[in-house]
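User: Design a sequence. Structure:
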């Protein structure tokens, strides 16, 4: 990847790694002695899920969903379309929904309601990042890595136009005007 001056590190990889360990330990405590199903929202949560899963000393299986939000990439429109559903039935299971970032909350509240309809035993939400100031629907994650200001971030799974997902740090990206 070509170096760019448009990126500024917001949360470095060491802080992320330490926080992910803490979140994993918290989840393990809450579900002690039980099995869990980690449901990742593609594609942004893939990196977080991979690290979080290895920080949880419980039997954990994985499943993934993909959704798309209509509208410009850097803004959520609130209209969510399901691109890929889960492979597994989640009825009666302990589900931890894993997402990269909670912004307006529209995407995650849509997915949460969809999953609650399927009657899991428990449904908890884990997010790496939370832009609390942007919330449009009341939604709180059960496990939050970091609260961040209202800036557009990339890296550690998060993209801008499919780029930067493989950065190890969470970085603020200076977007061109109007994006
Ligand atoms: P929400 O529906 O507004 O909560 O948006 C959630 C989705 O918007 C996330 O899963 C991301 O895909 C995307 N998103 C929101 N903020 C950012 C950001 O700062 N960087 C990259 N993607 C973001």
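Assistant: Done.
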């Amino acid at each position: 990847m070509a170096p760019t001056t448009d990126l500024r590190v917001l949360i470095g990889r060491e802080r992320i790694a330490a926080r992910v360990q803490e979140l994993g330990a918290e989840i393990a405590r809450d579900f002690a002695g039980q099995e869990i199903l980690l449901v990742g929202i593609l594609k942004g949560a893939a990196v977080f899920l991979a690290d979080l899963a290895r920080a949880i000393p419980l039997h954990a299986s994985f499943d993934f969903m993909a959704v798309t939000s209509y509208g410009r990439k850097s803004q959520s429109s609130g209209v969510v379309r399901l691109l890929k559903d889960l492979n597994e039935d989640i009825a009666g299971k302990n589900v931890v929904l894993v997402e990269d970032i909670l912004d307006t909350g529209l995407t995650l509240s849509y997915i949460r309601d969809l999953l609650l309809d399927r009657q899991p035993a428990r449904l908890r939400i884990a997010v790496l990042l939370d832009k609390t100031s942007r919330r449009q629907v009341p939604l709180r994650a059960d496990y939050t890595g970091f609260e961040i200001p209202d800036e557009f971030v990339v890296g550690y799974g998060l993209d801008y136009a499919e780029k930067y997902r493989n950065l190890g740090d969470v970085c603020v990206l200076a977007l061109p005007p109007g994006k």
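Residues 14-149 form a domain with the Rossmann fold fold (CATH 3.40.50.2020). The chain has a mean pLDDT of 92.
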